[in-house]
Amino acid sequence: QVQLVESGGGLVQTGGSLRLSCVASGSIFSNYVMGWFRQAPGKEREFVAGINWSGGSTYYADSVKGRFAISRDNAKNTVYLQMNSLKPEDTAVYYCAADRRTGWQIRLRVTEYDYWGQGTQVTVSS
Fold first, then answer.
1. Cβ contact 102:68 at 8 Å
2. Under a CB-based contact definition with an 8 Å cutoff, are residues 20 and 7 in contact?
3. What pLDDT, in 10s, does the model give residues 28-85?
4. Radius of gyration of the chain, Cα coordinates, nearest whole angstrom
5. What is the mean pLDDT of residues 94-123?
6. How many other C-beta atoms are found inside a 10 Å radius of the C-beta of residue 39?
7. In a 3-state reduction of DSSP, which class is residue 94?
8. Is the pLDDT of residue 26 over 80?
9. For residue 1, what pLDDT is reported?
10. How many whole angstroms separate alpha carbon 57 and alpha carbon 70?
């Protein structure tokens, strides 16, 4: 089992930045692919960014490419999402998730992740 706890959300103006953190406990964090997802009101949960076990491979949704950066520190059991140039359409609850299956293949579907955090709210005002 893996427990995931996100933090770092908040209210920011358009063009601002936030850094989300997700701390994992309970299992071997460094074995897992980690992902960030988000869910806006009335919309489906969607993939934002993913990172493989070593941090050597990352993948981003087109909507955030060039603005967001995912990273991880396996010594601290933590994955980060640096969000820059934020837009009102980035407003959502952001979730981190762990995929225990391969460690190297970054998957994009909600159903392919095994463990989820409780989410942290990000609100971008115009």
1. no
2. yes
3. 888 999 999 999 999 999 999 999 999 999 999 999 999 999 999 999 999 999 999 9
4. 13
5. 95
6. 15
7. strand
8. no
9. 81
10. 10
Q: How far apart are the C-alpha atoms of 111 and 96, rounded to whole Å? A: 13
Partners of 21 in beta bridges: 7, 80
% the chain with pLDDT above 70 = 100
What is the rounded CA–CA span in Å between residue 96 and residue 91? 16
> Which residue is associated with the tokens 């999402």?
81
Strand arrangement of the beta sheet that strand 3-7 belongs to = 3-7, 18-25, 78-83, 68-73
- pLDDT (0 to 100) of residue 27: 73
Tokens of 31: 């074995």
Q: Distance (Å, rounded) from C-alpha 58 to C-alpha 49?
A: 7
CB atoms inside a 10 Å sphere around CB 46: 15
Reference 71, options 85, 57, 84, 61; nearest CA is 57
